[in-house]
Amino acid sequence: MILSAEQIKAARAMLDWTQDILAYESGLSPNTIRNLEKGYISIRSSMDVRKTFENRGFEFAGKNGLLRHSDEHRTYHGADSCDQFYGDLLATVQEKNCEIAGIFKSQEMFKRALGITNISRLERLEQIGKHAKVKCLITDMRQISTFMSSFEFRAMPHNPFCPMGSLIYDDKTVIVVTNGIEFTFFVFKSTNVARGSRKEFDAHWDAATPFTSPASQTK
Predict the structure, then answer these.
(1) What pLDDT, in 10s, does the model give residues 21-34?
(2) What does residue 120 show for φ and ψ, rounded to 5 degrees?
């Protein structure tokens, strides 16, 4: 099976490897790894990378499937993945009172990733907002519909992680993948990975365009 760009990025993050380390371990060039993670898949190179990961205990299935459960890394997949991940997110921010940083294609995708599929479940945003300030970069600002004081949205022209979404909170970095129906969450618990991901997020945040609610625009 050929690995997808999402699986390669997720497995590399779980190992806390840079692209250069993966290149060295798999006997490939750093440029080849970068191309694989951009979606330019080479069958031979992909198989070399897969063998490298499998030698370290990974199992792959389907387009996005990846398994390596541990106390530090966890994967949520299936019909109840959004509810399971929301439980992880809420428990962490309740304990740590940490800021959440996210990148998604749209606000709608952000809410769906939290299991919010109808108005009655918007309380999930309120629960998170009680314990954390949320900064979220959105590519498609036309779908902005929900505004809360603890949530700040900014627009950027493209998502550097597309078609994935991502979240960073405390020492956890999350890669979010969806097939349009179900979501898969790769949660990595690593201070170094979170610090690097947050540094990249902050650079995009500073360059993004602030988006304010209609109410604040009329004041």
Answers:
(1) 999 889 999 999 99
(2) -65, -15
Shared domain for 201 and 108, answered yes or no, is yes
Of 79, 72, 146, 80, nearest in space to 109 by CA: 146
What one-character DSSP code corresponds to residue 75?
Answer: E
Q: How many structural domains is the chain composed of?
A: 2
List 12's β-bridge partners, or say none: none
b/e per residue 52-71 (b: at least 16 CB within 10 A): bbeeeebebeeebebebeee
The CATH number assigned to the domain holding 28 equals 1.10.260.40
Q: Two tokens at 115?
A: 């299991």
Q: What is the pLDDT of residues 169-190, one digit of tens each?
A: 999 999 998 888 889 998 888 8
143 and 48 co-located in one domain: no
